[in-house]
Amino acid sequence: MKLARFLTLRFVGMIAVLLVVSFATFVVFYILPADPARMECGHLCTAGQLRQVRAFMGLDKSVWRQYLDFIVGIFDGRTFGSGKGAVVCAAPCLGYSFQQSRSVTTLIAQTFPVTLSIAVGAAILWLISGVVAGMVSALKRGRPIDRALMTTSIVGISAPSYLVGLLGILVFGFKLKLLPTGEYVPLLQSPLQWAYHLILPWCTLAFISAAIYARLTRSQMLEALGEDYIRSARARGLRERRVIGRHALHNVMIPVITVFGLDVGTLLGGAVITEKVFSMYGLGALLINAVQTTDLSVISGVTLIAAIFVVLANFVVDLTYRLLDPRV
């Protein structure tokens, strides 16, 4: 019963958050000076033509009515205009890009596999390498390996992602010619080529994020090793491997998982800089292009998708807490 109540409350909370985010995003972008109808109609557009375009795009209604149409369109689809020239946006409709003559849902579906591939591979790499480095650093505190790992982590935290990516391209792409410097290959087309072309983006993101996880894991591990339950476990004669793996690491992973969930959720919304550096057209690149062309429908849709990923990541983190620590 407690779990069912928890899930129900969290689900209701997620819906409420998404409604607030979607409305805030919708209002912010649609009160900007940019006029989508004017951009679609052109500079030589007459006042009558502008009214027709505005009515066709549904921009002649109040903000509240436009927002309601947007929400209904997600579940039931939308139709812009009427007659033979009507544009149908099938559910789930997150808007329609008149600049690209495609629904926002279609654009997101086409670019999301790139972002997902980058995010999942990089996240696994930085989680494993960061936690392992942090554990080794904590267990070897004060030794040369500890200083080396922490120095490297400082470099990773300080270095901008675009700089790390460009250095990777220069060294491994152009100088050593070991790795490709861009171009996404679909997973189903060739799994090996898919992974081969993603090595540099994965390592770029992992190098930066693993540094944060290494320092977080180290500090949490040092704190855990000084707790009474660790001393009690050692006093009972438990093996050091069991003390570290079963008792200390168990508690260390709670804050690590919290940060990990937020990072992955945010990254799924678009690895903007990484996609741009490696010329991979994912959600981040789609968002940048939409900002440059003031394509408000795409901006709103991608922002809402990013918010959904963050909310879902928080939900998964909350469920993971129950596995790591049933007292939560």
Instruction: Determine the number of helices (DSSP H or I, runs of at least 4 residues).
Output: 13
Our count of domains comes out at 2
Shape: globular
Quaternary state of the chains: single chain
Share of β-strand residues: under 5%
Give the end-to-end Cα distance, rounded to a whole number of Å. Answer: 15 Å
Number of strands: 4
Provide mean pLDDT, rounded.
85
Biggest sheet details:
2 strands, antiparallel
For this structure, what is the CATH homologous superfamily of the largest domain? Answer: MetI-like
Characterization of this structure:
There is one protein chain. With 328 residues, the chain is mostly helical. It folds into two domains: 21-93, no CATH class; 105-324, MetI-like fold (Orthogonal Bundle). It contains 13 helices and four strands. The strands form two sheets. The protein has a two-stranded antiparallel sheet with strand order 1-2. Helix 1 (2-30) runs antiparallel to helix 13 and helix 5 (104-139) crosses helix 8 (191-225). The longest helix is centred in the middle third of the chain and has 36 residues, at 104-139. The radius of gyration is 24 Å and the shape is globular. It starts with a helix and ends with a helix. The mean pLDDT is 85.
